[in-house]
Amino acid sequence: MEFYRNAVDLRHEMSLFLRNEKNVPKKWRALYTVPILKKVRQLLDDIVEANAIYPYTVEMLAQRHELQNGCIIMCEKLFDCLQELMEDLWWETLHKDENNAERRRLEYHINRISELLSREEILLKGWKKRTKLLQRT
Fold first, then answer.
1. What's the CATH number of domain 2-130, 1.10.20, 3.30.70, 1.10.150, 1.20.1440?
2. For site-directed labelling of 71, which of 97, 98, 117, 134 has its Cα 20 to 30 A away?
3. Global pTM?
């Protein structure tokens, strides 16, 4: 369940990053941080729910695939949220001189979160692809 461990790492990284005053000022947290972290929690909830389904029937397989698709879509939504933050809050900082310490700090965290999101999407697609009907013994 590497996809679950990666999602937990993603939640941890995003929580620390988005709750830091240097990254998202308190006045913007209700608009950005809270909805993003809610999406990350939903991703983990859907992973747990999908993993709890043992697809012995076609209907159960379809239900599991639907939840897995929801997880993959949530990764795309999180990418969109990160892009929105880059445009709305960090645009000026990210366009400063590349030797700027604040820019380098932001880029490090954005790249780390992007890597985790990309990896999560790949892992989830692999998990979905491996999901098949189970035989009762």
1. 1.20.1440
2. 134
3. 0.92
